[in-house]
Amino acid sequence: MKSIRKRILIRVLGLLLVGTLIMGWASHHDSTHEVEELFDAQLGQSARVLIGLLGASQGQIPTEQLAQALLETTGEHPKLGHRYESKLAFQVRDANGTVIARSFNVPQLTDADWQPGFADLQQETYRWRGYVLESPDSALAVWVGERSDVRGELVDKIVRGTLVPDLLGIPLMMLLVWFAIGSGLKPLDQLAQLIRLREPNSLQPIVLGDLPAELEPVQAALNRMLEQLHQLLAREQRFIADAAHELRTPLAVLKIHTENAMQATDPGEREQALQHLRQGVERATRLISQMLTLARLADDQQRQRSPVALLESCRDEVAELLPLALRRNQELELISDNGLPDKVDMEPGSLSTLLQNLVGNAIQHAPDGGRVLVSLQRRADQLLLRVEDSGDGVPEGDRERLLERFHTQGNSQGAGLGLSIVQRIIERHQGSLLLGDSPLGGLLVQASFPLGTPVSG
């Protein structure tokens, strides 16, 4: 597992080292340039001093006498006053090219090296930087020079004096950065410690005071996840409790019918007990299926929607439910307005589940020989799905209870979950549900959905 502290430390020190090297290179480049300029200026100044001294011989000091004095001062291997003196040299000649004064270490000069100005001279052992100055008044020429390693040594000393302390300070900087990062990551360590010390079954929000702005999204995300887990566990517990409560009675009834069938001595009684057993199994199966559907729809996570052929899907579902209506001699009819969109965006299976529950309830509550009407209408940007029956209807004061789970209105075979499922589907599609009186005499259930942008075929 990689440590955040190590990751930050490596990156910070890497950038620091690269920055130090870049600054060292820039310092070396600038120092070299400035030292070159300074030493060139000194060469020029030295040449002018020599020209000035030798030029002063006119009427004051004889040139030969001054030259002799210079030769005696800088003769072969004089006693050096400074170690750099051996790296500096000069030579003076007259208009005839005769050398009248020189230092002991002057390099071998040719006529090409006496061109006025600055020039580099490469000898076998050393490289020299020279400057030639001619005096028209005294007809003298002066060459002054110095070895290039003088300049290199000075530049190296300057760079070392700047760079070496920085490099030596990197370990200390590493230590300081290590502690600084540790101090900065302390809130993260506190958050991790708080999470580690929590009870396994604790879903309470994480609260950590004086939290840095960078960790606030992390704390918010963790608390949001804990809240979602709390809701999920609550739904599961509620589902288990509802299932245990609602399945207890059907299973007990199935047990009774099974015992009656086993104990019956008359074939007619046995057939009747088996018929009741089959009906009980169908009711338990329907109850379990609806409970699973409701549990799936209880999830707040939005599922990917896809285009659904509106009228075609409604026709298929109504055709599938038609045998249930024909069994009771009921009339099942589907009508639709013009101008309906070809397709609408819905969660997969939602429209089928919606129609199965609405039309199935209407068939159960309509009398034998009655009528069930399914209609599709468009009102502005709303799609209306209306299901009506010719049953006895539901008093207005009892309609709200129809949306409660496991509430049955005069139907002992129902599970009481159909309209709860319908309501949840409508909520997931940002729609609305209306219960009212039908002109057919029974209950009118109207589901409204916002159309938004219709999906064309």
TrEMBL record:
Gene Ontology CC: plasma membrane
Keywords: ATP-binding, Kinase, Membrane, Nucleotide-binding, Phosphoprotein, Transferase, Transmembrane, Transmembrane helix, Two-component regulatory system
Kinase among keywords: yes
Gene3D superfamilies, A to Z: 1.10.287.130, Histidine kinase-like ATPase, C-terminal domain
Protein name per Swiss-Prot or TrEMBL: histidine kinase
GO molecular function annotations of the record: ATP binding; phosphorelay sensor kinase activity
All residue ranges annotated as the Histidine kinase domain in the record: 242-453
Keyword Transferase: yes
Subcellular location field: Membrane
The protein's Enzyme Commission number: 2.7.13.3
Catalytic activity, reaction form: ATP + protein L-histidine = ADP + protein N-phospho-L-histidine
Organism superkingdom: Bacteria
Organism of origin: Pseudomonas abyssi
Xref: PANTHER family: SENSOR HISTIDINE KINASE YKOH, SENSOR PROTEIN QSEC
Ranges of residues in domain HAMP: 182-234
Membrane topology (UniProt): Multi-pass membrane protein
UniProt cross-references to InterPro entries, sorted A to Z: 2CSK_N (IPR013727), HAMP_dom (IPR003660), HATPase_C_sf (IPR036890), HATPase_dom (IPR003594), His_kinase_dom (IPR005467), HisK_dim/P_dom (IPR003661), HisK_dim/P_sf (IPR036097), Sig_transdc_His_kin-like_C (IPR004358)
Chief localization: membrane
